[in-house]
Amino acid sequence: MSALITRPLALLGATVLAALATVGRVTRFALDAFRHIITPPFYGREFWHALVHVGYLSLPVVGLTAIFTGGALALQIYAGGSRFSAEQVVPQIVALGVVRELGPVMVGLMMAARVTSSIAAEIATMKVTEQIDALVTLSTDPMKYLTAPRVFAGLVTVPVLVAVGDTIGVFGGWFVSTQSLGFNPATYLQNTVDFLEPPDVISSLVKGAAFGVIATLMGCYFGMHSGRGAQGVGRATKSSVVAAAVLILAANFVLTQAFFST
Amino acid sequence: MIELKNVHKAFGAKQILRGVDLSVAKGESCVIIGGSGTGKSVTLKCILGLIRPDQGQIKVAGEDVTATGDRDAFLARFGMLFQGAALFDSLPVWQNVAFRLLRGSLKRPRAEAKEIAIAKLRRVGLGPDVADLFPAELSGGMQKRVGLARAIAADPEIIFFDEPTTGLDPIMAGVINELIREIVVEMGATAVTITHDMSSVRAIADKVAMLHGGKIRWHGPVAEMDAAHDPYLTQFITGSPDGPIETLR
Ligand SMILES: Nc1ncnc2c1ncn2[C@@H]1O[C@H](COP(=O)(O)OP(=O)(O)OP(=O)(O)O)[C@@H](O)[C@H]1O
Ligand SMILES: [Mg+2]
Predict the structure, then answer these.
(1) Which intervals of the chain form a coiled coil (chain A) (predicted)?
(2) Ligand 1 atom closest to Cα of B39?
(3) Residue A107: per-residue pLDDT
């Protein structure tokens, strides 16, 4: 009888403890990464490589997701608004929705899919083939050489990607609205610009920076802590993407709360 | 130069090292032999501090390995050839070889680093055309030799070779044996080599240590190896399937 009660409790306790330990390890890992970002030596080549990989090469996928999301949003708001004859709010709501929420979140999730997975798989493979050990024996700190450039690249490029995504998302809404919903192109843009406030844009970019750090950090963390063999690489990649996606959505909620709850 | 005292290491419930005692003098070439999976590679990684032993003490030049303050300076004295070569596949061959010369305390101009890399590649029997290839474009034996070139690139005082001749043809194996011997004799480096190849043992070693059952089963000068009356060692040298070492058939 008592085992019936204690066993689930013990299981719950063990799970909570394991989760807390992971949170602790990830936090230490993050602090370590930032310490390496701000202390020399700096690996310029690695940083440049990460900039191209994280930022530049992500532009197509960011553009595509943003334009379709913005377009769909315009259609929904028009359909929803017309129920109480408020169709004319399309430009304002599209701008608000894209800039405050959908832009950063879509970019963040695309980063988890594209960047986190590839970082985790690359670093895990390096770990499994002893390349990380080799780095250490060559007097190079893997945190400095592999993690710091990637996380820093995430911090600086993802806000730019979010800005691009926001712009293209708004354009997607504009395109659908002017082409099939009968809005005047110039008035639509005027309404958008008039409606957006500086905090909307700032929150968007801050979210981008946070999500960029989360996406790159999770890839590095799970790659560095990969198990052995091909199975270890697979598991590290999967866990990194799941962790990045969940953390990005959670961080989004927290940041929205911080910026907009009055 | 290198001293291990009572080193223990277990992975989970699997006890690998059960009290390894080994000392290698400065300028000496020590070869570690022993069955597959007895923990030879793990022993080298413990000395480098890549794996933390559960118990015991490891000293390099009188300094405790686990307690060194400046790890970079400590590791700058070492060169290591990994069993799987462990080349960085995002970098071309010459940048792998010259890795240490392109950053950190030993940094020098790129052109000079490349020149040194090409010279080191030549020493392991690889031409300059290999320098700009990527590791994935090389055969296993070639990768091994690039790993070797990387290990000796910065002329370290202490060099570890984990199976330097496995996967090489007999002639190339002979070239590599000679190279290792040269490095020890000419440069006065201290070398620890792991190998399964008995002809390589005879060519490289001053001293032989056999690892079995998590301990150093036998050690002594290479000249005394054949006359030794240790049934485990004798079985290993002759490669006989019958003897005290279990083969599980
Ligand atoms: N990081 C690790 N995690 C778990 N087990 C490990 C790890 N590294 C080594 N082992 C285990 O330790 C044992 C000894 O491994 P090691 O690589 O030292 O063998 P070895 O003597 O070098 O063998 P070989 O001659 O085949 O290379 C093996 O059973 C291996 O599975
Ligand atoms: Mg081995």
Answers:
(1) none
(2) 18
(3) 96
